[in-house]
Every structure is written in structure tokens, then in C-alpha cells.
Batch of 3 targets.
Target 1
Amino acid sequence: MDVRLRWQEIAKTEVRPVVSVGLLASYTIDPLMPYVGVALHDAGLPVSFSTAPFNQIVRQCLDDTSAMALARPDVLVVAPRFEELGDELQTAVDAALSAARRWKSFLVVVLPAVPEERAFGHLDDGRAAGTAAAAHEGREAIRAELAGRPDAWVVDAEQAIRAVGTAKAHHAAMFKFAKIPYTEAVFGELGAQLAGVLRAVYGLTPRVVVVDQDSVAAFDEPVNRLRESGARVVVRTGTEEVAALAVAAGVPAESAVLLRLGAKPDAWRDELVRSGLLDRLPAPEVTVQRVRRTARETVSLDDFMAGLNVEVDLQPVGPDSAAKVVEVVSRAKDFTLGNEKLDLSEDREVFAVRVSDKFGSYGVSGAVGITADGVVDVFSLSCVVLGKGVEDVVLQRLREEHGDIAFRHRRTPHNQITAGFLTDAGARIEEIP
């Protein structure tokens, strides 16, 4: 919570961002921002963030009119999960690579963790086609593809989950209601990993490590290892500010880090990793040569959309769908006409939008409401089905049934995508305050 409060305070300052970071994920990745933002701010690299609705990695990367394409971030972070993408994981990475080249962005791919649910239960690990085997093969294919590239890197979600512990890493309730699969602790670990990569990329890893005089006496061996690794070690004899010691050593204030070795002999290793100092140590003398997969042409947006096999069904709201329709409208944020609530008792026709594709059925994923005077005042879609052409199908069917129908739209901080879609489609829009 302290990190989130600090990020809110940083946002209120007039510090100008130096680097723009775009975040795309198959889940809601917003909880990651404070951890990355605070860490980079403290390193002297203030950042701004751009996000897009979850599970739109491929669409955002291939569509040159998407929100992320228009943002053209300096750094593009792509965080897929096997649970959402399955066999389309490599397609998402290919699309991200293509987008990063076009936008001249530095790409960071978050290697997805191996899923907890195993298709073959306790016998999964011994099957060549099991969940574990397929996941490890997919992970290593991504690592091999990005290894050695000057414009891309990876961080590993598996490492973050392992650091927290599987039992404390997943948040089933938050995933059900907000598509947030991980706990704060996991986002904290991922944020530290990502910040470490970006510090190294922008040359802001610590140049000086500060240790207290008592630590030198108690941990003579690890301190000597620091010196042998090439690190500049400054011994603090009192309570001097780390920034002041950095300036005295002739480096920027944010380029020094305090290494708290603690009371346990082994604690210094974890502290050393957290300090970021290892992020700039020389690479190993022997680099493992990995076999790269055969290059293939990046899928086009049209091919990707056609391959989804999206099916859209509009049916009048009945007793079995009423509650879900009201929930979808109340929770819709990015694609909505600006109505936060739907009263089914009012005089209007209301239709439930059910969506399915090759990955399965999404159930009731949207709603359309038409007033007695023939104006659409409810047009809401869940984020999970955005970018799949659902809005186009719904609009076409509305026009087939009602002709040149008008849409009553109220602007919100988030629903610009709806106004843009309707404008591009040539729809009549009635703006209301």
C-alpha cells in the first residue's frame, strides 16, 4: 500500500516523464504500474504509462489505429498468460515484435508462468503433450527468439511467483471480478524485475554501493566479493545520506544504493539482487547458444480476426440473462455510451450480446438498449471481447433491423473508443452532458 500511495504522490508532482511505457497483457495489468513507476522514479528515470483493455495484445499491436499504436511508447511491455492465449502465445509475441519495430520501441516480454491447473493431473509432468511440457516449450521458444536482440528483453513471471510462493501468488476472487490474476506481492516482484531491466537499458544501474561500517566487519567476505566484481564500495561511518555520498564519489545522487546486509549471513544475497547492482555486472564468459525457431511472417490483422471464428448472438433479455446484463452495463468502462446503470423497468428494448470464439464461450458479454423513440442509449461490451469485431457485428444487425439509428452518447474519461468507433462507422451520435 505504501508503494501505491507514493505513486499517487508522484503523480501529483510536476516531474516530467522521461520514458513512456506501454503495457499490454492478457489480464488486467494496471496493478503493476505503481511498482515500476516508483522504482524508476527513485532511480532518476520518471515514466508515464499507457494501457489498453486486457486480452487485446495482438489487436493492439497489429492495428495502426489502436490506442497503443497512437501512443508509440518508448518501451512496450507485453505480458501474456497461457491461461488466456494458449496456442496463440507465439502469435502475440510475433505481433509485439512487429509493433516494436514499427514504433521503434524497446520490447520487454514477460515470460508467462507455467499454469497451475494441469490437464492430466498428477500424471501431467510425464506427458510430452502435458500442460507443463507445452508451457516450458513455449517459454523457451520466446526466450530463444529474443536472446541477443539489442531491442528486446524478457522478465519471468515464473520467477516472481516462485519468490512469493504459489499459495500466496494467485488471487482467484480478483481474477473473477476484475481479471487480476496475481496478488500485490507478485506485482511487486514483477515490478522490481521490470525496473531492473529498464534501469540497465537506460544506464541507470547503481555505480556505487554504500554499506555501513558495522556490516563491513560482520560481512567481510561478501563485501570483498563486491569489490572483486568491480563495484565501487563506500563505507558509511555514520548516518550520512546516500545521495550525499554519491555526489562526494562523483556520481549522480540516484546512482548510489544502500546495501543493508542485515543480521543473517545469507541475507546479503537477496539484498544484492534487490539493489540492482547485479543488473550491470559483466555477462558470463560462456554464453549458452540456443536454437532459434524458423522465422515466419507475422500474422496480419485480417488473418488474425478471421482465425478467431467469432460468433455473436443478440437475444432479447430474459429472466436467465437479466442480472448478467445489468452487471455488464454497470461494469463496462472502455466500450459504453456512458450509461453506468441499466433499469430494465424502463420502456426500452434490451438485448443481451453473447460471444464465443475458438477459445470458448464468453457468455453474456454485452448489452444493447433501444428507447421507445428508437434511439440506442445502451451499447456496452466487456473488455474481454473488444478488438474481435463484436461491435461491428452488433452495429450491422442494429442497422439491418432499425435502419439509420441514432446513438445517445455521454463522454466519460474512458469511453473515447466508443465515440471513435461510431464516428468511423458513420453513425448518428446525440451527445448528452
Target 2
Amino acid sequence: MAQPTVLVVGAAGMQASSLLRGLHRSRTPMTVVGADRQIPEEEQPDGFPPMRWEQVDILTENNRLRELCTEADLVVNCTGPYFLLGDAVLRAALDAGTDYLDICDDADATEALLELDAEAKAAGITALIGMGSAPGTTNILVRLALDNLPDGDADVEINWVVDCHDMSGAVVPHFVHSFRTAIPGAGTMPDWDGLQPRTVVFPEPIGPQTVVTLSHPEIFTLPRFTRVTRAHNRGGLIPVDHTMLGWLLARLPEHPDRAIDGKALSQLFDGFAARKTIHTRLGSGLVVDVRVGAEGYRYSSGATTTQEDATGVPAAAGVLVALDGKLPGPGVIAPELLSPKDFFTALRLVSAGGGGLSVARTLDGVETEPARIRDLIAQSDEHTTLQEAR
């Protein structure tokens, strides 16, 4: 049987680079095609799989993009920010009849992609959206907790922080956009107190950090695909004045040409982020609480992992799950529909190690005893088997 072909769009970006390194670590046979508006001139760095490069502009060369999608077994979209670039790559994959995966982290873009569900089903393809860290790993952790909690409606609290040194390129306009869309339906930019700032203690080396309400895909997909009835997302940057800088930039009038707005925001962020040059990088942190009534689970991590690896490595695991034919579908789906066992099995193959994820049982929001991810996965797998048998 011929090796599957994976088309990585936006392959010259940072998250895509991490994804490619993860695929190479897995040693899974595949043909990789990298596509980008500008392809690298230098030699391919160590740790990348053998690959062919194709130059394409996804917004102006629709026919060329469709041709590349037709040649692939899976299209991986690592372009961004997604609220600017929209659904161009998914539509090309739909026209080509090719399965699709992305790392979309914009809430409004996620809603637009979910609206293509009927078209994806009609085309017979599966489009897995938001397969990064948050969203991505966070969704699967929520699913894992739900499979181990009693029946009933669930509440989810997601808290995360990333280091200001990880803020570059498309990440900056995405972060600013998360403030502009923080309160669904509000219609106005919230003031600082309206973002409900609070201190969350993350595991070392991160420690206590300030997080605020920000829009994120999980608050839309978890209630759609699971029994979660309330989901809240809070995030921030280290140090906190960079979070406030993002909020201040979000209060500026948007430029009519949103692409120009994105470039300008990145320049303004770097220009005003004076402490970025003197701040010693800490890393990133994550705390996810899932509760059904009084019972719950809390996931916590603190690590020096870069944001590109935190996003690209789970995406690489999603690629392996897709190539193994284990994506539920057809249709547009979110990561919480994946089997946790399939995902974590693939994650071990693509990971370079680290991350430091821990989990504890909670009662009324207070940790009671530690738990083990592997035990939760075993219970989740048994839960899935019982569901399929019904």
C-alpha cells in the first residue's frame, strides 16, 4: 500500500515546524508536502521529515490550493490567525474530498467552520478543527474526565497562561481578537473589571498568575458535543502587564483591512512590550476543572515548553489518529470526539517528553486525592466500549 500523503499548509510557520518535528519523531511512513506563501530558502533543518515544498497563496490561488488538496490524503491547516484567513483551506479540502485538520483557536472562526458540517458530511470527509493545545488537548482532557464522572450536566473552567516570549507573528492578533470577542453577544469591548481578572496558582515553575475572561473555541464546542452545559475560559500572559497590553491594543479601532490590522498589532505589541527584553522566560501553565455536581477532576501543568511545541505536538498526534482511520465522522468535529486512548497513544509517539501534566480528584472544588491519567484512559476506553455496545 502506498504511503499516505499529508499536505501541511502554512508549513513555514512555528507551530507547523513543531508539528513536522513531531511527525518525524513518530517514524510513521508518510509523504509530506509543505505549502506556504513563501517557502524557506535555507536547507531543511534536522529533525524534519523528508518533504516537498510548494508555493501557494491560499487567498488568491484557490485552484492551485485545490489541486494540492486533491493529491493529499489529509490536509493540515497551520495558517493563522484564523479569524482573518477564514475557511479557505477547509473549502479547498471539501472541493477535493480530502480529510482536514487544523489548529484553529479563534472562537468566531470555529463557529464559522462548524457551519460547514453539512457540506463536510455531503462530501464524505472529516474535518477535525482546533487540534492544538488549547483548544485540542484541553478538549480531550475534559472528555476524559466526563467519561470518569457520574451522569449529569457538567461545568468546565479552563485557565491558561503563556510566556510573553511566545508572542510573535499571528499569535499577537489572535490574542488581541480574544479580548474583542471575550463576552459573546456583548457588542462592546469589555473594560478590565468586566474581564473578571483573578489569580490562579499554576504548578511550578509558573506559580500564581493573573488570568482574565477571553473567548476560546472550547466554550462553543464542549456544549455542542458533550454534556457540558457551562464552559468558561480564562487566559493571560506572563508577566501580567503583557495581558493588559493585549487588552489595551484590543481597544484601538479596527482597521478596515483586517490583515493590515494584524500586522500593525504585532508591531505595536513588540514596540510597547518593553519588559519582554528583560523578563526571564518561565514557560506556560494550564489548570482545567471539570465538575459534575460535587465531584470533579482537576488537571494541572506547568512547564518550560514553548507555545509552538504545546500546539504543534498535539496536532501531530491528531495527524496520526487521522491517518490511522480513527477520526469519527464524516462532518466537522472537535477534539473532544476523539478517543482519549487513541490520542494519548499517538501523543507518546510524537512527543519529545516533558509537559508535567498531573490530575487529582476534587470534591466541591477541593483536591482530595491524586489520580493517574492511564487509569482514567482505561476507564474511558471501557466507557466507550459500553456505549458502542448499546
Target 3
Amino acid sequence: MFSATLGEIAAVAGRRSVRGALLPSLVFCCLAALVLASGRGSAHGALQAWRHGSWESKVLVVAGFVLALVCVATALGSAQTSLLRLAAGQWGPLGKRTLGRLGRGHHRRLVRRSDDAGAHDRYPPRTRPDDIMPTRLGNALKAAELYPRLRYGIDAALVWPRLHPLLPDTFLIMLGAARTGVTALLGSAFLSGVLAVGGGGYLWAVHASTPLFLLCLWGGGLVAWICYRGALLRAVTYGQHLRVAFDLYQGHLLEALGRPVGDGDDERAQWERLCLFWHRGVLPHHVATADRPAPAPAPAPDPGGAGPGFSPSLSHLAAALLGAAGIVGALTGGG
């Protein structure tokens, strides 16, 4: 939700674009060019061909590299929100029924075994198992999204677009920097995965040496995992900033709407009436506090995920697939 509504600050947009899209794309293009040169022979041979080539060929090579860099950086910059949703586990019906169910079962077991302090900012409350997401990053963002509802009765999806323009510039810059850190690392993880699979497949197809094939496949997978873990840490920090935004500035929105700031149950009822108005158009004075429906009971834990047995995470499955692909490729395609 927050990933789709958070705006960018114009004063630092260029710096964020460089950090979030251009630098990862530059590293990816350089490594992809190195893989292509290694697959055709050797990097030394490619360097010799460059030195003895005509200036027209050099101009064409440089122009092609710059064009590829621009295309990759543009695609990565425009796909940041989609990558964030993908990494958060917001998949289609087929993904939810297959990998999504497996990931949710794994994280439900982790939540049951963890203490409240350790899971507070990384998972939704254990009383809401239906809100568990298939990935760690999705759970960290979901915990931040649920915080204003549980604390103040605020539907974050409805209130955030109205609260965001009222935030101070200094806080917006800090919030945007935290989100840029998440998207930059996710973009690096995605490009590393593409390089591992695509580069490894290319080296296997051209019968490159086995060490080079394994270095590309397993090395790229390892870098992708490291970048994803870094994005997870940044997502926890980003979620903390979102909580602070509601804690400190939700009263500013009430003042901007011309409504007095209440406290306790009165404030919660006021937020619920406003959210109902924004969601369904029901006027706030038509909703009496006494007529509010009782909160729904916490959903029961999923019986399918309550077993004490081992439940692999999606990271375990990806590592197993890369390991098996490396072994099979080394046995069948090594030069």
C-alpha cells in the first residue's frame, strides 16, 4: 500500500534516481559485458580486439553499451513499485495458492516460535495470522501498515494519501531516503538474479569453463540474497518512519479537516467515522458511535500451518534450485 502512494521529493529526485536505478544498472551492464566477453573466449582476447579495432567499431560498441545502460536504468526505475510489490508477496491468485501458501505457512511458524519483542516490527501480530505475508519484506511492510489501524483505528490506505502532503519537508526527505534504500537494494537483487540465471545459462550454452559457469550462477545468486537481506533491514527502518508519521502528524490532518483532536475512544471513533466517509461516502454525522459494529474476533490460526515440522522458506527453495542447477550444468555443459 505505502509503496504505491509514497511520493518523491523533487529536490533530491536526481540523486535518488542515480542511487536507485543508474548505479545498479551500470554494475549490471559491466558484468553482463564481462560475461559475454568471457563466453566468446577470454577477457584478454576481448581487450586485444578492442585495442586493435577501428574507431568506428569502438564508437558503435560504446554507443551500444550506453544505449543498453539507459534502457536497463529506465526499465528498473519504472519497475521499482512492481519489484517492491513482488518482493512483498503481493502476487496473483496462482502465486498465492502455490508459493504464497508455502511462504505464509513458514512465517506463521516463525511468528508462533518468536517472542513479541523480536516480531513486533517484522511481523503482524500473531492474533492476525491471515495478515501474514509470504515473504519477510512483505511482513515488515504489513506490520507497519497495520500499526495505525490497531493503535488509532486509522485505515492507512485511506488516510496516508491525505496525511502525506502535510508532512514536513525534512521528514519527507528522511522517509524518501528510507524507501530509496529499499528499492535500490531490491533492484540490485533483481539484476543480480537476472545475471545469475541469464549469464549462467549463456555460459552453459557456449560450453564455458565450469568454474566460470558456477561463479556466475552461484555468485550472482549469493549477491542477490545479500542485497535482499539488506533491503529487508531497510524495510524495517522504513516501517518505523511510517509509524512515526502517524504518531506525530495524524493530529495535523484532523486540524486541517477542521475537527478537534480528541483522545482515547473519542479519537478512535472519529477516525473510524472519517474512514467510513472516505471509503463509502457515509457522512460522519450519520454514523453514531453507539451503532458501530463490534470488532470482528481475531481469526483462528490456520490448521494447515500449525504443525511443528520443518517448513522451508522461499529463500531455501531458491537456494536449492540454484544449487541443483549449478550441479546439473557443471555435469552437462562444462568446457
